[in-house]
Amino acid sequence: MAELKLHHIYKRYGNVTAVGDFNIEVADGEFISFLGPSGCGKTTTLRMIAGFEKPTEGVIMIGDQEISNAEKGYFMAPEKRGIGMVFQSYAVWPHMNVIDNVGYPLKIQNVPKEERLKQVMQMLELVHLKEYGERLPSQLSGGQQQRVALARALVAKPSLLLLDEPLSNLDAKLRESMRFEISAIQKELGITVIYVTHDQSEAMTMSDRIVVMSMGKVQQIGRPYDIYTKPANQMVADFIGLVNFIPATAKGDRIFMQGYEGVSFPNPKKLVGEAVLAVRPEQITLSKTGGMVEGVMNHRFYMGDSVDYRVKVKDHIVRVIQKGAEYEKYKDGETVYLDFDNVMSFAKDE
Ligand SMILES: Nc1ncnc2c1ncn2[C@@H]1O[C@H](COP(=O)(O)OP(=O)(O)OP(=O)(O)O)[C@@H](O)[C@H]1O
Is residue 2 scored above 90 in pLDDT? Predict the structure, then answer.
């Protein structure tokens, strides 16, 4: 059972603030992803939880126990924290077979051989590698090696598991299937997981909540649905999913699309003056006969299950994605009309 709390965590390297004021309370059994572009501070935060980096400020707690308190100068050694970890470079030992690799954490805890083998085989069953116990890592695929690393992290029964881009070395298909396997294992064991990734679809499919980070700062913490449909700012809207930003002006209870003074949307945030409208490509409907704004078909990309259109609307290129559309329905250069649904709005600098 592990609840994890980060309270006003900062990490500074000289005058670089790698992480600034990170706060979260993670519930027992929750799957949390840290998501953000390269250099946003995900790994640094994870390493502070693991105990490989000391926070410059703030407190980290597992359950009721402080594992790090910068003000008091208290810092628990990584091996005492009882945390499991799998990193991007999932070093499995090349000279040990799968059983010995997975059993290693138990061996250093002096667990007797028979008991060790029993626990190792349980873990190998969980990660679907029961038949591979005698093999050396060189006789396994990348995905199988990844699962050995996962089994090794899990065998010590950590209540908190930290995963840092553990699927990044795998091909697209394997990554996809491993997502579901990791989720299933996490649910079955009821462990708390912190998962670092820059892959938004990975975070969306696996997480109970996502922490979106940018430039060392938490931008939003929320359920995947809330992050996607109610992004806190333009950075989050842009990073999670695809989005068109359209300049606009807010007046009273409406926001007017720039260049189309007749086209306006509700103003729930009571913005004033320069604003930005944001609409997802799949929330735009195309038509030949009429709609809110007129545009010219610029490009079409056939994606199999959908067509990805670029439509020139005045000076902007608007991206529209239609599921199940026929590629030939619109021709390049043809006049088309667009209707916008679920339009989001932000202040210009939000
Ligand atoms: N030891 C260090 N000394 C100075 N700056 C550092 C150090 N470690 C990290 N940083 C800086 O802190 C910031 C956050 O780095 P971090 O590795 O946490 O990012 P990240 O989000 O995990 O990125 P990536 O996805 O590329 O791994 C970066 O700007 C990085 O250059």
Answer: no
pTM of the entire predicted model: 0.88
The span from the CA of 219 to the CA of 168, in Å, is 24
Whole-angstrom distance, CA of residue 321 vs CA of residue 282: 5
Q: Write the single-letter amino acid at 102.
A: V
Q: What is the pLDDT of residues 274-322, one digit of tens each?
A: 999 999 999 999 999 988 999 999 999 999 899 999 999 988 899 999 9
Q: Cα(42) to centroid of ligand 1, in Å?
A: 8
Give the whole-angstrom CA distance, residue 345 versus residue 113. Answer: 62
CB-based pocket (< 6 A), ligand 1: 13, 16, 18, 36, 38-44, 198
Of 234, 250, 282, the domain-final residue: 234
Range of 166's domain? Answer: 4-234
Residues 79 and 207 in one domain: yes
Count the domains in the chain. Answer: 2
Centroid of ligand 1 to alpha carbon of 38 (angstroms): 8
Query: Do the strands 192-197 and 160-164 form a parallel or antiparallel pair, or are they unpaired?
Result: parallel
Residue 137's CATH number: 3.40.50.300
Domain identity same for 178 and 246: no
- Same domain for 188 and 259, yes or no, is no
The domain boundary, picked from 234, 256, 283, lies at 234
Q: How far is the CA of 51 from the centre of ligand 1 (A)?
A: 16
If you measure from the C-alpha of residue 19 to the centroid of ligand 1, how many angstroms do you get, rounded to a whole number? Answer: 9
The ligand 1 atom nearest the CA atom of 47: 18
Give the ipTM of the model, two decimals please: 0.93
